[in-house]
Amino acid sequence: AAASGDCNLTHFRYPLFRITYSLVLVVGLPLNAVALWMFVCRLGLHRSVPVVYMANLALSDLLFTLSLPLRITYFTTGSWTLGDFACMVPGTMFTVNLYSSSLFITLISMDRMLAVVYPLRSRALRTLPAAWVACGAVWLAITALAIPVALNHKASTDKECNVSRCFEHYSDENWRFGFNILCAVTAVGIVLPFAIILGCTVAVVRQLRATASSLTTPSQRGMNRHKMVWLFMSNLLIYAICFIPFHAAFILYGLHKLHYLGYNFFDVQTITMCLASTNSCLDPLIYYFSAKTLQRKTETAETRDLALVKSTGTGTSYDTGIAASL
């Protein structure tokens, strides 16, 4: 965000950012540290495709929360004395977390959709090697994005107030360069993933309704299908709260900074940026709604259900395949 030109800490963004980042640090750091430990040490990265995706999501959130003390320091003092590199790190980690979270949530949604709608045909796609390749592609793309973002997030000198700034007071040249990046990554990293998740949600709800009446065994009745629906709802909720408002406000504010719009959306952009920062605290909702599913899915159950599918043909075996894939 750009500074509004004041030389004191009276603008509401300073206490708002300070409080928001402090709360996200206090809540998000332990949540994601414990989640990552659970995925790596308890569940194991060699047992389940969703665990691989969620472990990478937790890692992204953890890296972001670890960078928050630098942001808190700046919005407490209103000046920056730690140099360019220290300014580049938290600015870059915000972007890295925002778009890697969006892509990992999309991968989780696609995996769950394939498990429910195409439980048998998707087995060849839903493998651990494929999951690691997908995660590697995400990190590679995010790293490529992080380089220009980092170069655009250096500390700057506010000559009016005679202080060094970070996270704000960007030049018009910085804004033009950053705005072009913002529009591109919004389309690829937010709009497209949101459309995919929305489509996955519709497909899963339709499939669960179509197969509900044919689930007759105790194990099938025990499946908590509401948790599956809520998993997708939590994904959409994160977009509705964190991702979409921030990008809409940021683009509008960028258009104002580039003199295309007269109205200054700075205050709106400030509030939505705080909302975007809370995604590392909301992502554990995904872990919660996936927990029982992951515990039920064992190698023994998959082998048993696959054998049942082969021996009974289509019919009820299709729904049994859904139970195994969940």
Automatic annotation (TrEMBL):
The chain crosses the membrane at residues 19-39, 51-72, 130-151, 177-205, 229-256, 268-289. One of its GO terms (cellular component) is plasma membrane. The gene is lpar5a. It is found in: Cell membrane. Residues 31-287 form the G-protein coupled receptors family 1 profile domain. GO terms for biological process: adaptive immune response; behavioral response to pain. GO terms for molecular function: G protein-coupled receptor activity. It is a multi-pass membrane protein. Keywords: Adaptive immunity, Cell membrane, Disulfide bond, G-protein coupled receptor, Glycoprotein, Immunity, Membrane, Receptor, Transducer, Transmembrane, Transmembrane helix. CDD domains: 7tmA_purinoceptor-like. Its main location: membrane. It comes from Electrophorus electricus (Electric eel). This is G-protein coupled receptors family 1 profile domain-containing protein. InterPro entries: GPCR_Rhodpsn (IPR000276), GPCR_Rhodpsn_7TM (IPR017452). The keyword Glycoprotein applies.
